[in-house]
Amino acid sequence: MDVMSDVLLSVRLTGAVFFDVAARSPFVTESPSSAVIGPRVMADADHVIGFHVVTRGSCWAEAVDRSDPPLRLRAGEMVIYPAGDANTMTSAPGLRGHPDPALYDRPVDSALPFTITMHSDASAEECHFVCGFLGCDIRPFNPLLEALPVVVRAPVSPASWQWMAGLLDAAVQATGHGGAGREAMLAKLAELMFVEALRAHLDSLPPDARGWVAGLRDPQVGRALQVIHGHPGEAWNLDALARAVSMSRSSFAERFAAYVGMPPMQYLTRWRLQVASRLLEDGHTVTRAAAAVGYQSESAFTRAFKRHVGKAPGAWRRERASSKPALHGLKAMPNGR
Length: 337
Known about the structure:
By secondary structure, this protein is of the alpha+beta class.
């Protein structure tokens, strides 16, 4: 399995398309930060990422704090806010809306997405876009999330867009008429489009870019990451990893840290703990989880887990089990939606 796929599976990436928007100028939609609406849209996710995909026409995307310049989006382009920042989708830069967090409650008696029509000027060109969220784990270790910029703008590849756009339209239309399984289809499409956006972001990085994402395409660092993710339970040390990528010990350590931002053995430890955390949540005992990621003793594993995560493995598992909503994120709301 490739490293990107391994990370996305390990951090439990899950998608949801919440809004299907058809708008004509002037218009503005404003999404609150995930810190405000995360528990409403994905109650069982550690972290919530907002995204928008333009399917027809064009519009502007902008962070509410205006930390980055506004982005012009056209059909087939996606904008992602990995840190979950509040943002707007507008007909012109600088417009602000009046977000209502209650609009983000998951419905219990109907299927997503909610349909929004904003036709201020019937003669203006229509912009159609879908808005949604991606949930993921952030602890113990999510190297992808740590490496992404505040805003990711990326086109879906022309080949992928041909079938994605058709499925998006079909799923959105059928959801409005009670089509069975359409909400799940849209959720998976959101995840696929996120992966497409990540691939486009990777391809757009300049040759001298650094970071975990850039490291994936570097021959030596990318190979080292593949080795670590493919065999996290092996008895790796710095010499063995350097040999695996045909580099000297010192050159490898320096190159890996320059890209990933931490020494190879620290990365290995943190990734092992991420893998172990999933095993614990899946019902493995502490002893079995420790052995699966290369620890010879449960006590050594417990010390490492507590040092990096802040609590012992058993306490972590109990906390995670008790925090899962009974209906996996779906909950009844006071307004009945």
